[in-house]
Task: structure prediction
Amino acid sequence: MQAVLPSQDVGMHLTIGVTGHRDLVANEIPQIEARVKQFLGGLKKRFPDLDVQLLTLLADGGDQLVTRVALQLGVPVITVLPFSQPEYEKDFETAAELQRFLHLLHQAERVIELPLIHGEWDDGVFSQDERNRQYAQAGAFISNHCQILLALWDGKPPAATGGTGAVVHYHLTTVMQGYEHQQTSAQLLADNENDLAYHIACSRDRPDGQCKEGLQPLSCSWITSDSGKAIEADIPPSYASMLDSLQQFERDRRRYLGVHAVPGAMLDGGLPGIPPTASVKFVEYLFDVADHLAVHYQAQVNRNLFGIYGLATLMGLVFILYSEYSEPHWLLWLFLGLFAAGVALHITANRREWYRKYLDYRALA
Result:
């Protein structure tokens, strides 16, 4: 799973991507806001060691609704612009819509402007198809850089390139209709593990705006490419396990390495005259963290084995002495005490998962 991180922070984040319809039904908005608040608040409570952050286009409607709730909860917002800001502002039809966008944009912690798919257009004018492809690129970017996609969606199949349905379809299949027609190379040799989405069903303010047949408005569900769109009361276990492992990695990083960067060598040896980018530095930092934690837990495993083997040796010596001399009886108690100490050490190692963490962090590094 990938995450977009503010450049000044080296901690682990739980990144929530957002996709939503622009034309929400007014009388459903209060209930949708309540469900979004419950969703984000639940994640903050369940994963307290991960800093939840939001990745959004800030489009009118669902995107801005989620952003407002996130800011109320103190969740930082990263805005993705499909065009330059002046060009993007043309998609807000009224002055009030534009003002809402600018107000939220000024509260964003970071703004990412995506490049044009074809570099630039000669006449500087975007056709509707070209605009849709830019939105599709932005939707794919958000999907690729979040652990959970929050979808305020009517549940219907994609109707337009780059729309909410198309972004959800891409998140589940890695195929963006009208933009990408086959799986990306990253998914050709492995299963898609970045397909977790939380669906809040919502109607649209249009004549045919009711939710998909059989889908109850305002119902909530966890969906993945494996489980399909079946309602799940909680995060699917395999995805919860991945997020728990990410949280444990962050917890160990803070406990054993603090919040400051760990000095380490350049992974590529450094390129003369070319300074490393922030992304390269962050990957190098993560490698250093994983490497240091692997060394730490390797030492813990070695100490644990040394302790258990040492206790076993002492037990053998005490047993020999007790077999030779039936007196004193305290040798028997000493033997049982050494055995209890060995069991306690073994239980402690299992509960703290020293061996698993050593292997996991070494493999990660």
